[in-house]
């Protein structure tokens, strides 16, 4: 699954909506229109003045007349450049604001999307759209807006100027226009799909690379380096192949343009010869007209050539708008009473594609009770945790929190009830205080210190020279896994939810930090309902109830004492765990 591509009407609506967000965008657009039109008219005057110089040479005019026309030529050229540059600036300013707003909207929308939707689509696709596609769109706008604006106004001004000289010069665009039309039609019939395929291949490459980086420990543990490298190599080669196919369409377009240029100059020379021979126009006037046509080759060629960039930019724009076109509708409050911490999974089943991850799961967690899930890797423990957290939507059955489906709870209601701590936690860049107050913006320094004390991180905090003002994360101190996990647990304490889901939250502790993290985890689950995916069986042994999973089913349940007394899976796991310790 991937995030959708926006249709042309959706792209138009989104761009129009973004334009309305820019103050006085309509008036700025009119200013840009006036500047670009004036600049194009001034640029068209240049070849006309050159034609008049030719007539002066033919007529043997005085030096003073040459000087006057030369001064006029310089003024016209400078005026055209200045007016066009100002117009480009205004247009670029508007377009860059639109891109910036689009980027903000996409990130904001992505943060508000249901997590299961992001997981299904793949984080690599979202990362690619927010980085590669935004960069591609920005580069396309920067490159094409000046060219398209200049080309359009220059072509329009030149056509008007040629018609004012003699209507026969209109034969040039009339003869050449069908060639350009056929060339652009052929290009546009193939380029959009090829560029879209290239962008999708880039997203797949990003996904493969991200998975390899994030799962590097698993890759090494299972000696999957060669297979992972092959997958990345195949994804990268797919980008190369599809990129070459996209650029091939541009090469074919170049051949069409060479033919159009030859045809345009040939027709212009024939028409000019006939007009001079019939004394309809002077040599200077025809020279000016031909110079205008020669200058017209540049805008036409640039216009056709930037179709390559335009298509690539449009493909990126469609991918960006595909995320924001249908933003998630906020779930209203369900009317649930104050958080109590009751959890029920009723006959829940969930599948990844064709295979069932969990089947017919029935779990009840009463307020204040801790339930541990144990079992071999792939048994379905993490899937159950994700279903309870609302990160996944069951295919069958119900996941209830305080007698309400978890998907029916609003964000406010869910935050008050549920918090999840996984094995992989993120330390946000900023001060330690900023990192912690994400969970409770109004928390005082005393509350922050109390939370760190409860998770046994106060001694570590006191060892920092800047205390809570210490910068952590990517731009500061790189925290050890144990400390990062303690910060995550401290945030849960500050959030104070009724239900805590811990998905192997102490797995990164190692022998040195096991005791500290387990005590921290006990502090977090105390007086709360908790579902603990237990990596360490001594943590599971302290739970009120233990559920043993195997191949997506709950095969054993009971207290630690009851399960050890049986000759079952848990008894064998406990024996192996005890011997290993």
Automatic annotation (TrEMBL):
Residues annotated as transmembrane: 66-91, 145-163, 169-188, 251-271, 277-296
Limits of the ABC transmembrane type-1 domain: 30-312
Membrane topology listed for this record: Multi-pass membrane protein
Family annotation (SMART domains): AAA
GO CC entries: plasma membrane
UniProt keyword annotations, A-Z: ATP-binding, Cell inner membrane, Cell membrane, Membrane, Nucleotide-binding, Transmembrane, Transmembrane helix, Transport
Region forming the signal peptide: none
Gene Ontology molecular function: ABC-type oligopeptide transporter activity; ATP binding; ATP hydrolysis activity
Source superkingdom: Bacteria
InterPro entries given in the database record: AAA+_ATPase, ABC1_TM_dom, ABC1_TM_sf, ABC_transporter-like_ATP-bd, P-loop_NTPase, Type_1_exporter
Domain ABC transporter: 343-576
Places the protein is found: Cell membrane
Main localization of the protein described in the UniProt heading: membrane
Protein name as annotated: Multidrug ABC transporter ATP-binding protein
Highest classification ranks of the organism: Bacteria, Bacillati, Actinomycetota, Actinomycetes, Mycobacteriales
């Amino acid at each position: 699954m991937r995030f959708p591509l926006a249709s042309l009407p959706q792209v138009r609506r989104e761009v129009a909506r973004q334009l309305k967000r820019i103050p006085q965008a309509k008036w700025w657009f009119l200013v840009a229109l006036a500047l670009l039109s004036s600049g194009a008219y001034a640029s068209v005057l240049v070849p006309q003045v050159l034609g008049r110089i030719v007539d002066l040479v033919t007529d043997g005019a005085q030096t003073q007349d040459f000087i006057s026309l030369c001064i006029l030529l310089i003024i016209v050229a400078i005026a055209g450049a200045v007016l066009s540059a100002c117009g480009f600036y205004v247009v670029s300013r508007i377009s860059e604001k639109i891109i910036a707003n689009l980027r903000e909207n996409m990130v904001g929308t992505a943060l508000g999307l249901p997590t299961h939707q992001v997981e299904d689509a793949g984080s690599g696709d979202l990362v690619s759209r927010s980085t590669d596609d935004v960069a591609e769109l920005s580069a396309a706008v920067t490159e094409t807006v000046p060219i398209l604006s200049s080309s359009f106004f220059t072509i329009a001004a030149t056509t008007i100027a040629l018609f004012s000289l003699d209507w026969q010069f209109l034969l040039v665009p009339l003869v050449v226009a069908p060639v350009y039309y056929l060339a652009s039609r052929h290009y546009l019939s193939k380029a959009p799909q090829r560029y879209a395929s290239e962008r999708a291949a880039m997203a797949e490459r990003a996904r493969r690379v991200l998975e390899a980086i994030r799962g590097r420990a698993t890759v090494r543990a299972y000696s999957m380096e060669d297979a992972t490298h092959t997958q990345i190599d195949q994804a990268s080669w797919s980008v190369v192949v599809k990129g070459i196919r996209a650029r091939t369409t541009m090469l074919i377009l170049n051949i069409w343009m060479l033919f159009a240029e030859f045809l345009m100059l040939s027709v212009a020379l024939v028409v000019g010869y006939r007009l001079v021979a019939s004394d309809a126009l002077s040599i200077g006037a025809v020279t000016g007209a031909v110079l205008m046509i020669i200058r017209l080759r540049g805008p036409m060629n640039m216009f056709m050539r930037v179709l390559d960039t335009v298509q690539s930019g449009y493909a990126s724009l469609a991918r960006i708008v595909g995320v924001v076109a249908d933003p998630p509708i906020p779930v209203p409050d369900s009317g649930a009473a104050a958080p109590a911490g009751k959890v029920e999974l009723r006959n829940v089943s969930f599948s990844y594609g064709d295979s069932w991850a969990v089947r017919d799961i029935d779990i009840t967690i009463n307020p204040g009770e801790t339930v541990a899930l144990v079992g071999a890797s792939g048994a379905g423990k993490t899937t159950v945790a994700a279903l309870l957290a609302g990160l996944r939507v069951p295919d069958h059955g119900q996941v209830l929190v305080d007698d309400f489906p978890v998907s029916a709870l609003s964000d406010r209601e869910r935050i008050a009830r549920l918090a999840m701590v996984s094995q992989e936690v993120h330390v946000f860049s900023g001060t330690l205080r900023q990192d912690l107050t994400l969970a409770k913006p109004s928390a005082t320094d005393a509350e922050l210190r109390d939370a760190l004390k409860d998770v046994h991180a106060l001694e570590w905090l006191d060892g920092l020279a800047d205390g809570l003002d210490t910068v952590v994360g990517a731009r500061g101190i790189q925290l050890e896994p144990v400390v990062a996990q303690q910060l995550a647990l401290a945030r849960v304490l500050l959030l104070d939810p009724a239900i805590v889901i811990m998905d192997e939250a102490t797995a990164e502790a190692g022998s040195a930090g096991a005791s500290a993290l387990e005590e921290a985890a006990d502090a977090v689950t105390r007086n709360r309902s908790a579902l603990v995916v237990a990596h360490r069986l001594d943590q599971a042994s302290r739970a009120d109830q233990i559920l043993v999973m195997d191949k997506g089913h709950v095969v054993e349940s009971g207290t630690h004492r009851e399960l050890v007394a049986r000759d079952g899976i848990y008894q064998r796991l406990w024996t192996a765990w005890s011997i290993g310790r």
